[in-house]
Amino acid sequence: MPPAAPLRPRATGEPLGIAGGGGSLPRVVADAAAANGWSPHLLGVGDGLATDWSPYPSRRMPWGQLGDGLAWLRDKGAHRLVLCGTISVRPDFRSIFPSIRTLLMLPQILSVVRGGDDSLLRAATRAFEARGFEVVGVQEIVPALLAPAGRIAGPAATVADEAAIERGFGAAAMLGALDIGQAAVASAERVIALEAIEGTREMLKRVADLHRRGRIGRSERCVLVKRCKPGQDRRLDLPSIGAATVEEAANAGLSGIAISAGEALMLDYDDLRRMADARRIFVIGYESETRDQP
Amino acid sequence: MPPAAPLRPRATGEPLGIAGGGGSLPRVVADAAAANGWSPHLLGVGDGLATDWSPYPSRRMPWGQLGDGLAWLRDKGAHRLVLCGTISVRPDFRSIFPSIRTLLMLPQILSVVRGGDDSLLRAATRAFEARGFEVVGVQEIVPALLAPAGRIAGPAATVADEAAIERGFGAAAMLGALDIGQAAVASAERVIALEAIEGTREMLKRVADLHRRGRIGRSERCVLVKRCKPGQDRRLDLPSIGAATVEEAANAGLSGIAISAGEALMLDYDDLRRMADARRIFVIGYESETRDQP
Questions:
Q1: Is A2 inside any structural domain?
Q2: Is the CB of B197 less than 8 angstroms away from the CB of A192?
Q3: Shortest CB distance from A180 goes to which of B180, B194, B213?
């Protein structure tokens, strides 16, 4: 199935709001949007607060100035907004009180700062929509990022790898159903590690450490799986991998990576493929039977 | 409910086999057994291979000499065997071939070295039983170690703590049902960390790190829960805590610890209580509604 066509602006130069956290995704989205005629306007949030977003116009949006950030976007004429990149640091109540515009949003903000990252994003989305913004998914702006089904890069998966993928996807489905995380590491025989709030990179560091200390058998083939949470709002926080993920998986002694086909995002694909070939790490798009119907 | 009476030897001096891994539990069991008239015979396994078990007679039992270890116990006249302490390092196939007695057990051993720690222990138990040993639980030898229901040590739990405990027990039940782990850290709002093969200590180090880096809110009260896996064989690998667990929980910024009442083990109780008071960490025995019926 070829990727869907990207969402285009109603008129060339229409501003697109991008609430950008950490990682490379926000810039990938901004560049693709610009190539399709949008005028990207960046709001640095979470881990993206310190990022230099030039050449795009940008504002920092700490939690205490959420109202001001949205007012700026509206002044610029933006109607659509993409949320992407990592947040990681929890909102601190003490940072919330400086601005008047933000005080007017307090009830929503209070609901934003409680709950897991997923409920945080959902609550933020509701607050943005209540202010007239349409929140769109990364994959609507850059559909080419979505992982295809089947082999994506690296060597073929073995039968043992397939069993590990099944086990990992089952564990990740349960993680997602409880709104805990999206990623797991498993072998054919057992689950090795589960991602909660620490994130995929730190989970893989842990697996590397377990390998070094003999806690994982020498011949035990382990895989990383990343998948959407069951029922997840596909406009928010899709699971993603990039070349760095492949490298981290290799350093953790894994044999490969499986991600939800048509739901997970692949960043810097050429680098990812080169890394997968160089480190002999398979990358496949997996169509889980437990995947939600669209 | 007062603790049940400990299992006593048929005759004073009857040998009791103790397959002892790492941690303080094997010696606690040996001392309690000796006080009740048993003659403890230790087989050092896993993390207990390098332990000095004196004054008790002992043998090292690497995976490759499992058969020899059991033969030694049988020669001594032991009929009953307790498995306790941590294993952590996976059996390595290359260590399995040295001994003739072990070669005769190869089919069982092959089933032992596959699967999670839980299936490893179950398979080991079947192998021991097939050789005429009766495997008994730690709590049969030292029933006083079982956690009572209700407040055990430290301050009272708050309403937010109760909600965190509920959430943590739910997550840990799911972990256990998939044979992944027994412990989780949660707040009232979300699950913070899940234990897979890394063990509780390392999970708590991770939570300490997440706290330091602002990934957990300053006012977010988090608790550690440890519980039996649903359907777990109660003779094997009961969840346990000690004074060190309380200290690690305090260092991780937690408010308290909840363990399954009547199922989890408390080691070094006096030290545990002193530590809980000193660090203001509550410890409670929790009667989960999802607890298995005995």
A1: no
A2: yes
A3: B194
The answer to whether residue A9 is domain-embedded is no
Domain that holds residue A163: 146-286
Q: Evaluate whether residue B8 is within a structural domain.
A: no
**Nearest-Cα residue of chain A relative to residue B167:** A178
Q: Classify each residue of A180-202 as buried b or exposed e, where b means 16 or more C-beta atoms within 10 Å of its C-beta.
A: bbbbbbbbbbbbbbbbbbbbbeb
Is the separation of the CB atoms in A159 and A292 below 8 Å?
A: no
Which helix (H) or strand (E) covers residue A128, if one does? Answer: helix A117-130
- Got the DSSP string for B74-129? HHTT--EEEEESB--SPP-GGGSSS-HHHHTTHHHHHHHSSS-HHHHHHHHHHHHH
Question: Into how many domains does chain A fold?
Answer: 2
Q: Position of tokens 């989960």?
A: B288
**B4 occurs within a structural domain:** no
* Residues in B touching A196 (Cβ below 8 Å): 191-194
* Residue B125: CATH number of its domain: 3.40.50.20
Residues of A in contact with B215 (CB under 8 A): 88-90, 197-198
For the domain that residue B267 is a member of, what is the CATH number?
A: 3.40.140.80
Give pLDDT tens digits along chain A (294 positions).
556 899 999 999 999 999 998 888 999 999 999 999 999 999 998 888 999 999 999 999 887 677 788 899 999 999 999 999 887 765 554 444 445 555 455 445 544 444 455 666 777 788 788 888 999 999 999 999 999 999 999 999 999 999 999 999 999 999 988 888 899 999 998 999 999 989 899 999 999 999 998 889 888 999 999 999 888 888 888 999 999 999 999 999 999 999 999 999 999 899 999 999 999 999 999 987 544 444
